[in-house]
Amino acid sequence: MMLRRGFILFLPRLVGLLVVACCSVSIVYMLACTPKGDNQQLALPRVHSPTVKEGYEAILQEREEQHRNYIISLKKQIAQLKAELQGRTEQLKSMQNQYPDPLDIQLNHSKPEKAQANLLAFLRSQVDKAEVHSGVKLSTEYAAVPFESFTLQKVYQLETGLTRHPEEKPVRKDKRDELIEVIELAVGSLNKPDGVSKAKPRLYTASDFVEGIYRTEKNKGTLYELTFKGDAKHQFKKIVLFRPFGPVMKVKNENVNMADTLINVIVPLAKRASKFRQFMQNFREMGIQQDGRIHLTVVYFGKEQMNEVKSILENTSKSANFKNFTFIQLNEEFSRGKGLDVGARFWKGNNVVLFFCDVDIYFTAEFLNSCRLNTQPGKKVFYPVLFSQYNPSIIYGHHDSIPSLEQQLIIKKETGFWRDFGFGMTCQYRSDFINIGGFDLDIKGWGGEDVHLYRKYLHSNLMVIRTPVRGLFHLWHEKQCLDELTPEQYKMCMQSKAMNEASHGQLGMLVFKQEIETHLQKQKLSSKKT
Fold it and tell me: Which CATH number is 263-508 given?
């Protein structure tokens, strides 16, 4: 009885505890599963709110509205992106129409023959755009792209880069590999049978290579002109190659016979008999004895020292059995342009190569060949960049004696510089000189006439070959800038005078000579004390 009564009394308490537990579980479940809004948690239905069912319907309706708004927002963003993409597409089509590909190159791998033909056509168009077959009109003297010359061992360059060496071995691997590839390709082209001659062809090697020049036009490619020894004396083989930023293409393979090509060296002169004697020594050795296909025209101004100059000419004529010279005397003030113009027009023979020269120039027989090879009537004129010698008394001041002239003519940055601002020494055919109009005879005295003629050629369709050459030197001499010169001529003269003395480092040693001597004296005193 007691147990039954106790159980009956405990039963309501147990039921109450179960009800409380069930309510707690329900509350926890509702807290965990109730959906949340974008920014805050949605509240549960409260005691005084509508029923639980109505509360959940309101929550679902609110959530559905949020999703609907989100979908509308996404659709707007997609529409904006489509509009922007359409605008970019129209802009790209407009640019393609404005700048079409000149050859419409389509590298379609499914049609390799067409792709190869298009690429080949493009490369050949690069050859046509570059100055390979003919010159192009240029606005100023600064627009001309200069060549650089090279042999098997050396490169002679204007843009010296970090090394600052006017001549050097091609130490950069890309330049070395490039020139080796070009020479090998040229040799292979020379040894390729032409299919016409039945005679056994000569086998060419790299040792037959004489010299080459090359230049790169940044938007087209690199042009190479290589000269090889020919089948006989004074005969050469010339190979023209072009790299249109791709495989090298052979442009020309021709025989060049220079055996009968005469050079008329024209020298304007006034006084300076001692310099003329030195010039004639060089002319006799290189022009008469080694080359032999040369004529000399001296245009002399005034009468002072004229007899001495004529005597030097006559003595050379007798001793070397040389009759190919002309002496013209003008009774007027010296004008370099007038002298060269008179000398060029005085010639009455066949078309001839003119070499405009000065009395303080030293040239080699190799340069005379370069003069012939780089000129072509109606096609090309040659403007070599010569190597200008520094003052020997400064260069060799620390030596016991100054070396002989031949020993001084070394292309190094300590001995001289490429005279890239000078245009006076030039080779061209007489016909081109006459057709271009010759010199401006209104220019008197020193300087200006050479630049004027150079610009005439640049403005024409002739190709101007501008390259440093290893066989043409300007010998140092003290320069006098006369008061009679115009301000522009006087400025040019003084700039040339400053450039002629010594290198930057050598001039610096002279400026700081006292400081250096003081330092050496201190070093001697210090060594004595120790």
Answer: 3.90.550.10
